[in-house]
Fold this sequence. Notes:
Blueprint: H1 7-39, H2 43-50, H3 53-68, H4 72-77, H5 87-92, H6 95-104, H7 123-135, H8 138-166, H9 186-193, H10 202-229, H11 251-257, H12 266-275, H13 312-323, E1 330-334, E2 337-342, H14 346-362, H15 365-381, H16 384-387, H17 392-402, H18 408-421, H19 428-432, H20 437-442, E3 450-455
Antiparallel strand pairs: 1-2, 2-3
Helix pairs in contact: 1-8, 1-10, 1-13, 3-8, 6-8, 7-8, 8-10, 14-15, 15-17, 15-18
Amino acid sequence: MPHMQDPKKRDAVIGYIRSMRKTLCDLQAQITHYAAPFFAGNNLQRRWMSATPAKRGEIILAGLVKACTATASMHMARWYCEKELRVESHRQNGCLFLDLLEEMMVQNPTAGSPNMPTYISNPVWDAIVAQQASNATIPAKTALKSHLADRNMLIGFVVHFALCSILDIALPELYSTKSKPDKPTSQDTRLLEKILPVAYNEDTVKAMEKIARQVAKGVYAHQREEYARGKQECETCTKPNDTTTKYPHCKRCWDTMEREVLYCSSECEKVDWKAGHKNECGKLLQLEELTPSTSDHSPRIGPPLPGFKRSGALLFQVSALNQLSPDYEYLIRVPNAYVYFAFPHPPICAAVRACRDKALSTGDRRAVAMLAHFLFVVCTIDPRPQRIGVDRAVMMGQIMDEFQFPELWCAVAEMAHRMCLDAGRRPALIVDAGVSVAQWETIPSEAWMDVGIVPVPGS
């Protein structure tokens, strides 16, 4: 079957997928950076939901127009995002954008751009991806990955555009091609419609292979056009050239594959060589090489465990904890600042940190309730938090919002009941940590906690 027989064209598609994935990772990191502070306190939700339906639709439509006129691939990707980017749906349901935004946000924000982007879940696409491993040919897999990259890139651009619009942030400038993207032909329409059925059948595979050849041809021609126009950027640092001079490229990659691997300096070339270019220099790129590398940066609080997705507000808590002193166990918002809670006594510090880390990494309801109850108890016993502006009801509301736990008050009441029944009146968090009654009674209340005010990181 003559599907992408030209290795240079297939190589160009895989290079395109890599580039799109990296761009999407950077875009999602920026979305998280912008959105997380505003999710804390529900400011972002209030701004978006207070906009009129017409205004919400106008913003989404403007983002679509800007993204779809940037490149032909974004223009065609509208076909893959009918459920997520239907303007009328955003007019009627403001929560649709907020859900997309939270799904786009990076779950480990202080580790920089992720190695692999978050893909927006969709029943149709999820079903196709789940079955591709055993049912699809290599060209079909390549085509599917290309479509997924385009689909999520378009959603990311529109979400980013809408976020900047409602937060009054300078709008991003998308790269625009000189030529207008072609409108889908009737043949394109028929091919794209074949991707949509949930059933992953032979017709779907054939349709993907046809589109794969079209994508390969378009990407390959686009790369040649870009080189002729002189628009380049460094493979390592992504620094763009000024179009008056051309960056030198990797000679072996160009001679064997006509693949543009450009470097602004010999230093960047050496860095990229050590980072992995030596393993693929002059060789045909393979799909299995798209596996992301492991980040060298390991924040104190890492990503959540599989099955738990942090809310926007909780992402901001995690980001702040990772940026501030490692002695801080939790942060409560007050106007323009945070009140930090630290516990210098080793048994209490170990107990609080273990419970907190479990709550932050798994969202475990019991751990969240024990942590919230313990903070409530120390704020009741020690007057210092209230003197510097911590309202216990507001504190509970913050934790409820961060963990999306509307039954938190009931769960905390249950923890308070357990404390009343305990012989040493120990909070449940202390009991579960194995701190004995004798140990607990020897700790003076003033040694429980250190509390103070710190500015919001990045403010």
